[in-house]
Every structure is written in C-alpha cells, then in structure tokens.
Design brief:
Blueprint lengths: L2 H12 L6 E8 L5 H11 L18 H6 L7 E8 L2 E8 L8 H10 L2 E7 L6 H12 L3 E7 L1 H6 L5 H22 L17 E5 L4 E3 L1 H7 L3 H9 L3 H7 L2 H12 L3 H12 L7 H7 L8 E10 L3 E10 L1 E3 L3 E4 L5 E3 L2 E6 L2 E5 L1 E3 L3 E5 L9 E3 L23
Parallel strand pairs: 1-3, 1-4, 4-5, 5-6
Antiparallel strand pairs: 2-3, 6-7, 8-9, 8-17, 9-16, 10-15, 11-12, 11-17, 13-14, 13-16
Helix pairs in contact: 2-11, 5-7
Bound molecules: guanosine-5'-diphosphate.
Guanosine-5'-diphosphate (GDP) binds next to α2 and α6.
C-alpha cells in the first residue's frame, strides 16, 4: 500500500475517535502564503507527491481559481499525522483568502474548531488578517499562528537573529491585541499567543521548514542556526532538519481542541435551540449515537456526481440510506453517498460520525448554511455573520 492509501485507511478508522480529530482551517491576508502552506502540509503528510507541492495547487481545483490564482473554493483535505506514536486525523478546510469571498470564509469557520493564522513576516498584520481573526473568534475558533516568509527577512531584509525576533514579537503583539479585542471574554487570556507557549511557529512555507520555541529542543535548531543556514543557501537541509508539516501539525495537535472539547463551548454560541433537548444534549458532547445534526458549509458542483453538500456533523452519525430533514425545505431527503474529502479525491464511506466533516450526495435542496437533521423541527444553526475588512485598522 502506498503512503497515501495507507493514510486513507488510517483516516477511515480515526473518524471514530473524537479525541484524535482536529478540524482546522488556515486564515490569512491575501498572498501571505495560505495556499503554499496548505499544499506543503498535505504533501508532508503524504497525501500528495512532495515534488508537486507548491506547483500543483491541490486545493485549488476549480479552473476559475487556477486562472485567478486565488483560492475561492472551500474544500476539505484530510491528513493523518503522528505525534508521540499516536495517529491524528487533521481535517483541513480550505478557506478563500480574498476579501470578495468573505462569506465563504465565514461559513468554513463554522465547520472548524481551530485555525492557523498565517502572517507574512515582511508585511506584518494587514486588514484581512484582522478580518479573518475576527471571523474566527466570532465562531469561537481557537487560534494558533504561523509567521511565514522568514527566508525573506534573512535574504532580502538582511536581518540578524535578534532583529528577526523583534519583528516576530511585534507581529505577535499586534495579533494579541486583536485577540484581546475580539475573543469571547472567557477565552481572552487563555487564547493569547506567545512564543513560549508554542502556539506560534515561524518559517518558510515555500521552502518547507518551520520552527517553534518548544520544537527547537526536539529538532535541535535555534534562531542562529536558521539565519546561518538560510544565508548559506541551505534551506533544503533545514527542511529536512525542521520539516514544516511536522512542526505545524504538532502545534495543531497540541494546542487546538478536538471536536468533543470544542462542542461544549461552541454549540451554545452557534445554536440557540434548547440545550436540554435530545439533539441539544447530544451536540454538546458530540454524541455519535444521538440524532443526526449537521450544518452544510459548502455546495460543490461536480461534473459527474452533481451537487455535493459539504458540512460538519455535530451530532449522531451520517449513514447511507438515512432520511433527513433540511431546514427551510419540505419533506425528507435520502442520503445516497457519503465521502471524506482528501483534496480533490472523495473517498466513499458508509458512515461518518459527529465531529467530522462529510461530503454528501442526496441533500438536493441544501444550500450553504442549511441545517440537516433527523429531527423534523430542529432549530436551525445560527446564521453566520460576515464582516468586511475594517475601515480603521491597528496602527502598525
Ligand atoms: P495566499 O494568497 O495566501 O494563498 O498565498 P500563496 O500561497 O499563493 O503565496 C503568495 C506568494 O508568496 C506566492 O508567490 C508564493 O510562492 C510566495 N510565498 C509563499 N510562502 C513563501 C515563503 O515562505 N517565502 C517566500 N519567499 N515566498 C513565499
């Protein structure tokens, strides 16, 4: 079995272990490196050839996207990553990076519990950085950060290790100001980013290396080593010593919540029905045996399969042949096909339990934002608020 097939087989088992799942997205100002990072994470996790990463924009599979060079299709790519001998399933939702597609960003945020905010180290925090942070925090999505394009600080701006660290601190402070401003009160302190707590990584998505303070010991690399290796043109060597996907996915596993942990505080924020009802109780604990409740975050039109609804299962298990209600549509709809999405591949499965992202054929009247449920009169999920970029941003 190839690595990709092996990972797909593992993923099919991991969908049943909530504590081993992380639903995340990558959020960034345009051109800060979200696509490059997504590609290289997927390649690093063995889901596509490493040679193709960065060249074949795996998540950008619409021709329109290719032509515009902008990621507009919020697709999903599942990856398997091992930390301390344990396998994890990372469901990475691709979110658009462009302001025009803000509605899609917001919807994708509903499906995830954590995010990686990417900030270009040369440009720092930009207006769309603020917008995506605000959207994430509004949805109670916990942040981590990747400071990208560090190679440019070294090769183009000629910064030394100390100057580079000053730049990082400025970016972290700016992002923390936004977290202090937009995070739910109870998480303002807990979700603060710092170099020491390991919720921030630095590196070059393009050149495939990264580092975080906790990873420095484990991978035996410090800031001075990075500066000298980049200056000496040894970024390939650095990518072997401190591989981007390992550092970033370790950060994700260690610092972002699993769907069960997240449901407890996210459900009351995104669903205003009766938390004491059967479906309410089930969603709060991500019960795979409860009544089915799912929110559709994206409709993909496939030339062969037709309309595919993609969304997050919050309660119960989505099963082939199940008949479900869709908010604002009358009657029941039969689930024909269920799949996990691995980049452009759809891997068909018989069932997907709560805590996961699923692609479904059969929900004909569903639109992005629809609530799908086994309960006839289920209170729909809250509509998602979309923010446009701020007129006044931080003084940076
Ligand atoms: P997105 O708009 O956020 O998806 O950004 P992209 O991933 O498309 O990257 C924007 C540009 O920055 C592309 O030309 C990338 O090749 C480049 N880029 C991304 N990461 C790095 C990096 O680590 N170093 C350098 N020098 N360029 C990068």
């Amino acid at each position: 079995m190839g690595r990709k097939e092996d990972n797909i087989a593992k993923a099919a088992t991991l969908v049943n272990k909530a504590e081993s799942i992380r639903n995340i997205d990558i959020a960034a100002h345009i051109d800060h490196g979200k696509t490059t990072l997504s590609d290289n994470l997927i390649a690093g996790a063995g889901m596509m050839s490493e040679d193709l990463a960065g060249k074949q924009l795996m998540l950008d599979y619409d021709e329109q996207e290719q032509a515009r060079g902008i990621t507009i299709n919020a697709a999903n790519a599942s990856m398997v990553h091992q930390v301390d001998g344990k396998d994890y399933l990372i469901n990475l939702i691709d979110t658009p990076g462009h302001v025009d597609f803000g509605g899609d960003v917001t919807r994708a945020m509903r499906a995830v519990d954590g995010c990686i905010i990417v900030v270009d180290s040369v440009e720092g925090v930009m207006p769309q950085t603020e917008t995506v942070i605000r959207q994430a925090l509004r949805e109670y999505v916990k942040p981590t950060m990747f400071i990208n394009k560090v190679d440019r600080l070294i090769n183009e701006l000629k910064l030394n290790s100390e100057e580079m660290q000053k730049k990082f601190i400025k970016i972290i402070n700016d992002v923390n100001k936004l977290i202090a401003k937009y995070a739910p009160d109870k998480f303002k302190k807990e979700w603060e980013l710092s170099v020491q707590n390991g919720k921030v990584s630095f590196g070059s998505a393009y050149n495939n290396w990264a580092i975080s303070v906790p990873a420095m010991k484990v991978f035996n690399v410090n800031f001075n080593d990075i500066v000298s290796m980049v200056r000496e043109g040894k970024q390939k060597e650095l990518a072997k010593k401190a591989p981007l996907h390992k550092i970033i996915l370790n950060m994700v596993v260690h610092h972002l919540p699993d769907p069960k942990q997240a449901s407890e505080y996210r459900i009351p924020n995104v669903w205003h029905g009766d938390l004491e009802s059967q479906v309410g109780k089930s969603m709060m604990v991500c019960d795979t045996k409860g009544p089915l409740a799912m929110m559709i975050t994206k409709i993909i039109v496939d030339p062969h399969a037709g309309e595919i609804a993609v969304g997050r299962v919050f309660s119960g298990s989505l099963t082939k042949g199940q008949e479900l209600y869709i908010s604002s549509a009358s009657g029941k709809f039969k689930i024909q096909t269920i799949a996990m999405m691995v980049g452009p591949d759809r891997i068909q499965v018989d069932s997907i339990p709560a805590g996961n992202i699923a692609a479904v054929i059969g929900l004909k009247s569903a639109i992005a934002g629809s609530t799908v449920s086994a309960v006839a009169d289920m209170e729909p999920f809250e509509p998602m608020t979309h923010y446009t970029d701020p007129v006044v941003t931080l003084a940076i």
